[in-house]
Design a protein that fits this description.
There is one protein chain. This protein has seven helices and eight strands. It is an alpha+beta fold. The protein has an eight-stranded mixed beta sheet. Helix 1 crosses helix 3. It is globular, with a radius of gyration of 16 Å.
């Protein structure tokens, strides 16, 4: 069953990022959690955010069919984070990533959005294997990846970076897909 965006879960709306989302990304890129666990990207203005969205985030939709998505709290329609999969040219499989405003962490939004995005990519693009990376000092991300059935597979360094990250991976087979990803009807509207 193919699905289209936006994805609606019980509490969230997940849609493609648009240039009009740049002000939100200035806030997200400068949040304590982003800087601590992802790193300072030196995004200090809406223009800086627009540039990184245009150069890094938006091209993935046309190049791969998928990418990172903005996550909105359904009732308020307020952006609270981002979640998606990114295909790096030097890696065989795309990697899952997620980040939320500090005020929105610990509420289960990471799991809810990751589960929906993984299901979307698996069902629509037949991608079955994913990587994920996080710092050893980020227990929330490690726990979330464990809930999503990712296994730790050592360490990894992104090209041009000296920072050592934990490498996680998961492979979903057709018979295993629904083990953590319930039928889309249970959380899509």
């Amino acid at each position: 069953m193919r699905t289209i965006l936006p994805i609606e879960t019980q509490r969230l709306i997940i849609r493609k990022i648009e240039m009009s989302d740049a002000p939100f990304f200035v806030e997200l890129f400068n949040s304590k959690g982003w800087i601590e666990f992802i790193g300072d990207r030196n995004i200090k203005s809406v223009e800086d955010a627009e540039k990184i969205l245009k150069e890094k985030y938006l091209p993935s939709y046309s190049e791969n069919g998928f990418g990172f998505y903005i996550v909105l709290e359904k009732n308020s329609q307020k952006p609270i984070g981002t979640c998606g999969v990114y295909k790096r040219p030097n890696l065989e499989h795309p990697d899952l990533g997620f980040a939320f405003l500090d005020s929105e962490t610990g509420k289960g939004y990471g799991f809810e959005s990751s589960r929906a995005v993984l299901d979307y990519v698996i069902l629509n693009f037949e991608v079955k294997e994913f990587y994920a990376f996080t710092l050893r000092t980020n227990p929330r991300s490690i726990n979330l990846l464990d809930k999503l059935d990712f296994d730790e597979n050592g360490t990894y360094q992104h090209e041009g970076s000296e920072e050592e990250l934990l490498l996680f991976s998961v492979k979903y087979f057709n018979t295993e897909l629904r083990k953590i990803l319930p039928s889309p009807q249970t959380y899509w509207r």
